[in-house]
Amino acid sequence: MEEAGLARRAAGGDSEAFGALVERYAPAARRVAGAILGPGDEADDAVQDGFLAAWKAIARFDPDRAFRPWLMRVVANAARDLHRRRKVRQAGELPEHAASRDPLPDRAADHSLFRDTLRAALETLPERQRIAVVLFDAEGYGHAEIAEVLQVPEGTVRSYVFHARRALRQALGAFREDDA
Amino acid sequence: MTDITPFDDRPDAALGARIRAALDRPGIEALVARVRGALVEADSPWDVLARWAPRGLVAAAAAAAVLWFLMPAPAPAPVPGPIASAPVQMEVSPGQAEAVVLTVALLEGR
């Protein structure tokens, strides 16, 4: 069934329809929460908190509007709340190898190093830039949808995406294409 | 990653794939099952009631409004005519008028 139909049924209190939406959006929600908290158990906790909060607030969701930006806003807020409550990650905390890219990784640099470096580079970004670039490039959201998630103007979203991409390109510049 | 300009509105598919790979973890099915389980546990009767209370109140108000419009208006109660127009018949027996005058005079202290 289409997202709109499921969302409409869920908004009417249909728990099965909401369950189908959970299944559909759990991977994206996990990545958004992971972008805020770092991929791990806490991100999963945030995903669960977010879906629960969305279900409790489903009566306030307007079925004539798009569901996924609304859901992602709730999930992102849950992840932010968790981040504030537990204070598990400090801004600027980076693994050694990511903080300095010298010496350049040689041919033996494996995929996990690239992944770790990308994660670390994401962590250095301001939270809103991080969410924007994950939603835009990894999840395929439009600027308008991201603007709804972040509650900022579309122009601000474009700026977030641009700056985030530039920072990621700088951080990953030492890697060759086939390292990724 | 492809070259990106500040005005590029297209998602960077290569960067997107790498971000997904960096943030993904195995076990999405377990997470979905966990969330579904939490939803079932969280859905106590009070939660259901709380979720439906606003809509229930709105529906009840709407139903009351519709009923109010559809109910026939009650028949108007008969309005009594003006007192002044009612015929008054007083029968005063002889001596009764004097008794009234005397009573009033006593009350007024005359």
Q: Major beta sheet of chain B, specifics?
A: none
Helix content of chain A: 55-70%
Greatest contact between two chains: A-B, 44 and 38 residues
Beta-strand level of the residues of chain B, as a percent range? under 5%
Tally the helices of chain B.
Answer: 4
Q: Strand portion of chain A, in percent?
A: under 5%
Structural class, judged by helices and strands of chain B?
mainly alpha
Number of strands of chain A: 0
Identify the overall geometry of chain A.
globular
Q: How would you sum up the major sheet of chain A?
A: none
Label this structure with key terms.
heterodimer; A: 180 residues; mainly alpha; globular; B: 110 residues; rod-shaped
Secondary structure: elements and pairs:
The complex is a heterodimer of chains A (about 180) and B (about 110).
Chain A (H helix, E strand, L loop, with lengths): L2 H9 L3 H23 L3 H16 L10 H20 L9 H4 L11 H14 L2 H12 L4 H8 L3 H19 L8
Chain B lengths: L12 H11 L4 H15 L2 H26 L25 H12 L3
Structure description:
Chain A is mostly helical and 180 residues long. Chain A has helices at 3-11, 15-37, 41-56, 67-86, 96-99, 111-124, 127-138, 143-150, 154-172. In chain A, helix 1 (3-11) packs across helix 2, helix 3 (41-56) packs across helix 4 and helix 7 packs across helix 9. Chain B is mainly alpha-helical. In chain B, 58% of the residues lie in helices and 0% in strands. Chain B contains 4 helices and no strands. Chain B has helices at residues 13-23, 28-42, 45-70, 96-107. The radius of gyration of chain B is 44 Å and the shape is rod-shaped. Classes of the chains: A mainly alpha (180), B mainly alpha (110).
